[in-house]
Amino acid sequence: MNNRPKIAIIDPNTLSALGLKAILQNVMPIMTVDTFGSFAELTANDPENYFHYFVAMNVVLENKTFFSEHRRKTIVLTLSLDSTSQLSEFHSLCINVPEQQLIRSLLTLEQHAHGNGQHLPPMPKVLQQKILTDREIEVMSLIVQGFINKEIADKLNIGLATVITHRKNIMDKLGVKSVSALTIYAVMHGYVDINQI
After folding, report:
1. Whole-model pTM over 0.70
2. How far apart are CA 40 and CA 185, in angstroms?
3. What is the predicted pLDDT for the residue at 99?
4. How far apart are CA 52 and CA 153, in angstroms?
5. Distance CA 192, CA 173 (A)
């Protein structure tokens, strides 16, 4: 029996839905994320079981009654940052932005809704363990704040080759391949304040 909290993405754009699913699974690894191409698919799959709905704007507009009744669970996916083009009664998430910015918005949303992890089940033991050395944590923190290898070397008073080795070790240990995934890990584990990225 899977008792992980569940998130639903309702978006007829398959590529958009799958991309958001991948990012959400990084931001909230303890969540199960399901994607639906239509409102009918969602309603056929016990919609009350979901903690949150990430929903394309057109789907919300076509099914306004349902989503208004579930306003606190609904996050509307918009293509514009312009507040006049967003639905004022809902939380909105602009998905038409660079990856770093989208991840920052999701992390902000997650921390706002679940400050300090309240309302969320505990992280699995393996994710609670300290994986990185103190020096690797320092290097990771500087990477996600946007510093380049040379600046990190100067700040930490270590050689450039050492920074590169640390960087490779961090990526290998965490099993991540991008700075975006590293950013998610760093913020979710409290190594970097969201306002520093």
Report:
1. no
2. 34
3. 82
4. 42
5. 18
